[in-house]
Amino acid sequence: MEQLMRGLAAEADDEEIPSDDEDVAQDVEDRPHARLLDAISSMDGNKRLKHTLRTIHGQNVSEFGFKTQKVDAQTLMSEMMGSLHKSSSHSELKKQLKSVYTTTEVVDTPAPKHIKEKIQRSVGYEKTVKELSKWDPVVTANRKAEQMKFPLEQPTQKLINTHITFRPITALEKEIQAELAKIKPENRIPKGKLFTPAEEEEMKAMSLEEARERRAELMKMRAIMYTKASKLRWQNKIKSKRYRRGKKKEKLKQMEKELEELAVTDPEALMDRMNEVERKRLEERGRLRHMGGGKFARQAKVFSKYDNEKRQQIQDMLSKHKELVKKHRQLPSSSESEDEAEIPNVTAATTVHSKNVWMQPTVSSLASLSVSQNTSAVEVRDDEDEEEEDEEEAKERKFLASFDVDETDDEDDDEDDDEDDGEDVEGDDVEKSERSEEIAAVSAPPLQQVEAQSVQEDETQKTVEIESKKSGKKGRKQRGSTHEEEKRVAEENESKKMETNSQKAGKKSKKQRVSTVVDSTAPPEDEEVETSQSQENDADEFEEVQTKKKKKKSKKQKDTTAQETAQSGQEKHEITAPVISDQEKPELGTTKEAAKPKKNRKRGKKSKNSSSATETAISTEEKALMAVVKGLQTTTNENENPNTNTSKAKKGKTNKKTTDTNTKTDKIPETPADTLMTIAEAFDDDDVVAEFVEEKRRVEEEEGEKDKDLFVPGWGSWAGAGIVPSNKLRKRFIKKAQPQARTDNKIGHVIISEKKNTAVEKHMLDKIPYPYKTLDQMQTTLSKPIGRDFTSETQFRKNIKPKTVVNRIGQVIQPIDDRALLHGGQKRKAVDIELNTKKPTETSAKRKKKGKH
Amino acid sequence: MPKIKVLCRNPDDYLRETKNDIHKVPRSSSAQHPFKEQREYVRTLNAVKLERTFAKPFLGALDGHRDGVNVLCKHPTSLALLLSGACDGEIICWNLPRQTSTAKVQAHEGFVHGMAAHKSGQYFFSCGNDKTIKQWSIDAQGIIGGEPVNTLLGKCIYTSLDHHWKDDIFVTSGSRVDVWDERRSEPLRSFSWGVESVHHVKFNPVETYLLGAAAHDRSILLYDMRGSAPLRKVILKLRTNAISWNPMEAFTFTSANEDGNLYTFDMRNLSMPLNMHIDHTAAVMDVDYSPTGREFVSGGFDKMIRIFPVDKGHSREVYHTKRMQRVGSVRWSRDSKYIISASDEMNIRMWKAVAWEKLGKLAPREKAAMNYSEALKKRYGAFPAIRRIQRHRHVPKHVFNALKQQHETQEASKRREERKRAHSRQGSVPYVSVKKKQMVGEVE
């Protein structure tokens, strides 16, 4: 403002420009003069400020039309107006000046046109953008929508009353119409309405909200009822003793209270109760429940206050109970009674499973049983051979151990046998018998032989089932006579051994075994011996047959091999039952033979081979034998625990024996290192490296390019019948395979396959496709199939929902409308209005409050 | 042998059943359905092969024009009718199902540049090289009245014309953009911004007061019909030939550019296009949205018609015939099922929007089968064997070569830039989006 004022002052100072109050006419006259002056001044070359002159003729001259000239000295407004302050007049002017001083704002110069337009545009644009942003939610929702149906405005489907235009024509229709006419008017839907009057009445009676509340309440009640009921049911099922005890105590206390009350108030009722209790007592006695803690006893205790008799009764009962219990506890476990108890058990077991082939007791089990029974008396018996005392003890221990298991596992044995994956029933049975033979051969050879013989005899005539049963029975019967038999057998064995000219050591060992067996067999009770006299004879006969066979065997072996090998072989045969059975095969010629497992046959063969081998081979044979024993052990381990025990004992024995024989024949004892050596020697001939090279060459050949024979008859020569193309020509057409660049070419000891299945490659993704981020995601999605065949129909329909649906063919789809912005809220509101015509009443509000409490 | 009682507890005996014991039985266990994925994969493969087998998009050609067809105009009420204007000034109304012309009018001297119908379908406007805007009456059968109902003489050549979606207002472009009331002989409002000449103008179908225009100065202009000033201008590197608004999104439009690309913009953010649709090998002359707003069709000087999904950078479909020349105008029918193209060699062609789609009514089972195969294609579409079949299209040699060249060029420029970046100071060669590169700028 100050500037402006200064400018004005300057203008006012300027002499050449006339002020407003000067005459305009003079101004007009001055113009040519001014021009002249200008022209003159411009001649001298000095730049001079041009005089701007107004060109418009008019009364009112704008003050803005003037321009400032060069101002030499600035005049301040204060200088001009200084005198104004001194004067007392011009109050109006003073006021104006004052306002001028106070307002310091300067009005901006108006913006140029292009800027103005720009501002207009940007304002307009921003406004439009703001307006358009209202579409954002709709657009994003539509973009994300799983499905969009076009056109967006779907036609509304309203319920239309069809009966309005319907006219019955046919007889049936008329009949139906007549029936419909009978319907009460309140149940008919009137024209233009959706519900019958009755329905509307119902709807009026209860608003939706009220109905919901009511339903919720009912549901709550039902839930409470259910929980209560389930709790009670649950409590009834509690099995905790403590809980029950507590409950009973409570009940008793209750009863006591009642009785006390009754004693005072109603003695008759008390008597009734007493009678009732008496009845209960009688029942209790009838049931012979003499425990003090019975229901009766506890009740009687309560009544004993009032009845001395009752007390006595209880006392009696308790004493009786004690007596009974005492008797039970006095039952001692003597060896006799045990023996007595055991036998019926076994028989029971056999009788129970007599029909089931699998459940029949095996000969082995019976044999082991007999052995175990006998062992109980071992301790009592004195040893005959002082040298082998230690050995005996060890054996005893083992047998005892086996005995322990024997009794308990008798049943289990049978069951285990069941589990064996035998080829057929017969074969399995045979195996069992063989196993039993084998064990018997070790523990009690004579007995076993007898048994085996009996079995063999039966085999020819009877089925496996019966025969096994029989053998079992026989075994049992013969148990009594074992002692004498065995003695005889031992003698016979000795004689036999003498005949075979076996070495002393061998004989000794044999003796040992026999003696041990004799030792192990308990002295039978006199009565038993007497009763089984008749069977003894039969057994004797069997024995004889058996010994004869043995002789034959030994003779055979003698013929084929040296004495030592024969000895060892014999031992082995005795140890391994299968071998024996195999050798007996030709003699027996029974149906069982065919069913024998191959394993055993092999073993038999092996033994045969071994018998014909050299001395070095003997050791290996023994190894094999050991292996066989081991194998058996493992198999028996799987099947029968007692058997394993015996076999273990056996094993120890055999080991000892073999070492014995070895020492006698000056053989080097075997060590694991030796076996390793033999393995290395065994593979000495194979050149592994050469084999590998060969294999690699084969692979290369297989995977590599092959020579191509491109020869076609007639090419490069005359063709025709009878012309034989030369080999030279043929060769020319063979395209040689190029040497491959294999990755394993430079690595000698590796084969890297060049085979690569390219067929699958074209179906494989090289990266995880877009919507998925991890392989897992993709796999889970793909594992949920879309098709009807793999999912339910509803899921299938959901799966195949297309993203864009055009509902009807040939329908114009209009662009989205403002109505889309309003959708959602409005529709829901309409429904609410329709259904909630009645507002929630006070009663419902009250109910709400109650529900809360 | 005494019977031994063993402690043996089965939890089922002493545990009560709870609600947790009710198991969900999975229906699609792999035990029940071995190879389910594999089976579906094979089904997809078959579906894709069938898709290709049934892909016969060409429905027919309408011939009758004696010069290249320049303009197409959809009839607002009838799906069967179509208006076309040729370079010799003739306007023909077509009956599409019959493939016949219902009426022919010599409307202008020289080109017919623009045509637009009133929403009632009772009359339409046309403008041409003779600086006139003519109003023609048309009946439901597509018979055009012999003489124009109204003729407006203008001062310049009107290059394009569009009608308001709701009101009786239309807009023309020329040396400026004029908004006309149907009943007046002078424009209601004229927009000009600098000394450009606008060659294309379009009304927004959703927010109907908005206008989009393309000008010769390589710019796309936006107007608010209600205001006196334009809103904004976007300048691209090359000229925009046509624009089309998305009928389902008020603020989205796509422009067909001279550089062979299409650019989809959000008009609220014009600094960069939302998407760049690449596949044409020459200038794109026209673009039109499907009424569903999910796809748009474009045609151009490379004699191809391409269909793009809005959110994809490349076309899903390409249509061409041996005889079809440069495509001047394309339209997507209002039921979203057909595409109509007009080209230089005087023919108008009808295509199916989905090449393999069966036309006519589908039985429910048929529909379900189609939907199933579509779902399968969506799921397994990324697998190379399927993708290869699905993506395979035969294109003419010139397009094939051009595409190859385009690809090479792109690769080369990318490589060059990478090298430049590798050999200059870090950050001095910034990564710039391809979309951004096509922009010259936004003018307020």
UniProtKB/TrEMBL annotation, chain A:
Any GO BP annotation: rRNA processing
Superkingdom per UniProt: Eukaryota
Comp. bias intervals (Acidic residues): 11-26, 381-393, 404-429
Annotated segments matching region Disordered: 1-26, 324-345, 366-673, 831-853
Family: Belongs to the UTP14 family.
Positions with biased composition (Polar residues): 366-376, 560-569
Entry GO CC: small-subunit processome
Biased composition (Basic and acidic residues): 459-470, 481-499, 657-669, 831-845
Subcellular location as annotated: Nucleus, Nucleolus
Pfam family membership, one: Utp14
Main subcellular location of this protein, as a coarse class: nucleus
Keywords: Nucleus, Phosphoprotein
Molecular function terms from GO: actin binding
Annotated WH2 domain residues: 32-52
Name of the protein in question: WH2 domain-containing protein
The species this protein was found in: Littorina saxatilis
UniProtKB/TrEMBL annotation, chain B:
Domain Sof1-like protein: 353-438
Record carries keyword Nucleus: yes
Keyword field: Nucleus, Repeat, Ribonucleoprotein, WD repeat
Pfam families: Sof1 (PF04158), WD40 (PF00400)
Keyword Ribonucleoprotein: yes
CDD domains linked to this entry: WD40
Lineage top rank: taxon: Eukaryota
Residues spanning the membrane: none
GO cellular component, one term: small-subunit processome
InterPro entries: Sof1 (IPR007287), WD40/YVTN_repeat-like_dom_sf (IPR015943), WD40_repeat_dom_sf (IPR036322), WD40_rpt (IPR001680), WD_repeat_DCAF13/WDSOF1 (IPR051733)
Region (Disordered) location: 403-444
Gene3D superfamilies: YVTN repeat-like/Quinoprotein amine dehydrogenase (2.130.10.10)
Ranges for the WD repeats: 62-104, 105-139, 277-318, 320-352
Leader sequence residues: none
Subcellular location: Nucleus, Nucleolus
Biased composition (Basic and acidic residues): 405-420
GO biological process: maturation of SSU-rRNA from tricistronic rRNA transcript (SSU-rRNA, 5.8S rRNA, LSU-rRNA)
PANTHER family reported in the protein's UniProt record: DDB1- AND CUL4-ASSOCIATED FACTOR 13, U3 SMALL NUCLEOLAR RNA U3 SNORNA ASSOCIATED PROTEIN
Family: Belongs to the WD repeat DCAF13/WDSOF1 family.
Identification of the protein by name: Sof1-like protein domain-containing protein
Lineage: Eukaryota, Metazoa, Spiralia, Lophotrochozoa, Mollusca
